[in-house]
Amino acid sequence: MEAFFSSTLGVAIAEIGDKTQLLALFLAARFAHKNAIVAGIFIATLLNHLVSAALGVWLASAISPEVMKWVVGGSFIAVGLWLLLPDKDEDPDGKWLKYGAFTATVVLFFLAEIGDKTQIATVLLAAKYQSILPVVVGSIAGLMIASVPAVYLGEMLMRKIPAKAVRIAACILFCLLGILTLLGDGIVLKAV
């Protein structure tokens, strides 16, 4: 139970004000399907944190910091550029609206979690407790505790801020993180 509670508390605290919490706000402003966003956050976090807990320690020892820097930096830039793509609201058959919120959330959250402090915390907690399941369940619970309110309350906040401005600001933030990661010595990886 200690692994679960430590993971829940650690990840919930780490997530407050984190880029993925800001991403939850952005997605809440962009899509009307809040439950699909929450489900997407859950699936992306489950996949990301399972991989993190199972393979994180091995990856850290097997991949050079230089390669990891390029993977993480490139991922940040890719997410930033994807945020600029306009919504497909004009799609006459509504397929984008039906699947857009969930798919966009899964992909964006999964990519945003790469190199994120909550992913790193999951790796470290799994190594400390040598137990995958309670750490993964706890880290998912912590991330959901911090992100779900942003999804449901974010719409109220975002009504006052134009979606285009949020999309551009999010793009700039992710691209800046990517550039700083690529230029740095891993300092940004520790900071985000």
UniProtKB/TrEMBL annotation:
It is found in: Membrane. It comes from the Bacteria. Keywords: Membrane, Transmembrane, Transmembrane helix. The chain crosses the membrane at residues 36-61, 67-84, 132-153, 165-189. It is a multi-pass membrane protein. InterPro entries: GDT1-like. GO terms for molecular function: metal ion transmembrane transporter activity. One of its GO terms (cellular component) is membrane. PANTHER family: TRANSMEMBRANE PROTEIN 165, TRANSMEMBRANE PROTEIN HTP-1 RELATED. Belongs to the GDT1 family. This is GDT1 family protein. It comes from Neisseria flavescens NRL30031/H210.
